[in-house]
Amino acid sequence: MYAAARAYTNIALIKYWGKKDEQLILPMNSSLSLTLDAFYTETSVEPLQGLHEDEVMMDGVLLSGASVAKINRFMNLVREKSGRHMFARIVTRNHVPVASGFASSASGFATLSAAAARAYGMDCSGAALSRLARRGSGSASRSIYGGFVKWMKGTDDASSYAVPVDPAKWPICLVSVAVNKQPKKISSREGMRRTVKTSSFYPVWIKEAERDLARIEPAIRKHDLDMVGKIAEANALKMHAAMLAADPPFTYWEEGTMTVMRCAVHLREQGIPCYFTMDAGPNVKLLCSEADVGRILEDLSEFFPSESLTVARPGPGVDYLKNP
Ligand code: DP6
Prior knowledge:
alpha+beta; Ribosomal Protein S5, domain 2; Alpha-Beta Plaits; 2 domains; 8-stranded mixed sheet; 8 helices; 14 strands; lipid metabolism; diphosphomevalonate decarboxylase activity; EC 4.1.1.33; nucleotide-binding; diphosphomevalonate decarboxylase
């Protein structure tokens, strides 16, 4: 059966960094994110008789070799779980603002999970989709839902999935600053592995991440932007500190990353709530109030061209699309 879905990207405020099981993608710590409306992926999956492998078309290009390997592995899992063995035609399109600095793996695997689960007649409940998406990419488990979402680390495949925490119906915004769009030299998978294995700060990171998560949830429920921002910013810094303490040490930051961080601190000195967070890359996201977006863009435009600045708002969860 043909099925198509759409899912949005998310940004973690309490980061997932480190796996205890690389095969099942079980994380060392629980995490929490905000789903965003700025970047989404639409994917259709159609199992077809007569195909000898999955046929994957991404943004108009037929994928082959290494670029399709991750999707093939994921589709093999779908076939194993569903007991249906047909290969599929997969058509996927990323809707990305120009030079946005947003990553696609979260929205990509969330939407592929939803479309594949329906196409192969599998359980399409939220928890089942989140568990399936997790096997493609950890952060994708959270893009099943809109607003603020928590991925509970769980203890095994059955208990590690995301749940919605708050619909984020308050006037918050996320300004993304694309510092450098080049592909990163150390993938998040490799970066996590090295940090878990070698960083003397890693045990502290785990403890702090769980503590930050316990503190951010009540702040979200109270719509306390300052508290949410403060906890998220500190959490990002602690994750990056754990990377600096790895062997060999590494960082994703670049000069532009520091420039944005300084802008945020400067804006706060002027009484404007504005907090930064960075993932496994140099780009920075600023959490702020809708009312302050204009002023923040004005400050950033001193250092960055307008096409590298994107404003995102809370986005919805995964949704099915009608047949064309
Ligand atoms: C820093 O979900 O991309 O963005 O599970 O190996 O595919 P894999 O990793 P991925 O890692 C995301 C790491 C992060 C933090 C986060 O999104 O929680």
